[in-house]
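Quick one, probably user error.
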């Protein structure tokens, strides 16, 4: 989805109030939702990495919004994810990224979809934490 990310707040308070009602709020609660991997695919011989990937989606806050079609999209991705873990390729990664983007995998994806995640204990919106220079250096992104 091209273009700049939408902002959660605006300069004028009345615009911020209007914009906040445009977002759907979900809570990070760790509940497993949706079908098991075996039920969704009709197969139980998937690798541990794929099972972990599937359960990560089942525990994601946005999973509360998923319909059968969303779970179907993820089930169709399972063989591609399995193939990627066996033999990584740019084509497989691109397909995985594109499909996950549409389901709200990253902070930017959720902003574009107008999904806000809150903390279950405080009820506050989970903020985006900027990465400091020392963290960038540890992960190879330093200048």
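Nope, works fine. Designed sequence:
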């Amino acid at each position: 989805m091209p273009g700049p990310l939408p902002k959660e707040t605006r300069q004028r308070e009345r615009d911020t109030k209007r914009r906040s009602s445009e977002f759907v709020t979900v809570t990070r609660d760790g509940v497993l939702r949706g079908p098991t991997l075996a039920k969704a695919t009709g197969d139980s011989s998937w690798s541990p990495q794929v099972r972990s990937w599937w359960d990560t989606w089942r525990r994601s806050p946005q999973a509360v919004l998923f319909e059968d079609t969303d779970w179907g999209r993820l089930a169709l991705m399972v063989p591609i994810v399995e193939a990627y873990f066996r033999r990584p390729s740019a084509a497989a990664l691109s397909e995985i990224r594109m499909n996950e983007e549409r389901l709200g995998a990253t902070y930017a994806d959720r902003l574009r979809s107008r999904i806000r995640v809150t903390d279950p204990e405080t009820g506050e919106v989970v903020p985006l934490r900027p990465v400091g220079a020392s963290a960038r250096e540890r992960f190879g992104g330093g200048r």
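The radius of gyration is 18 Å.
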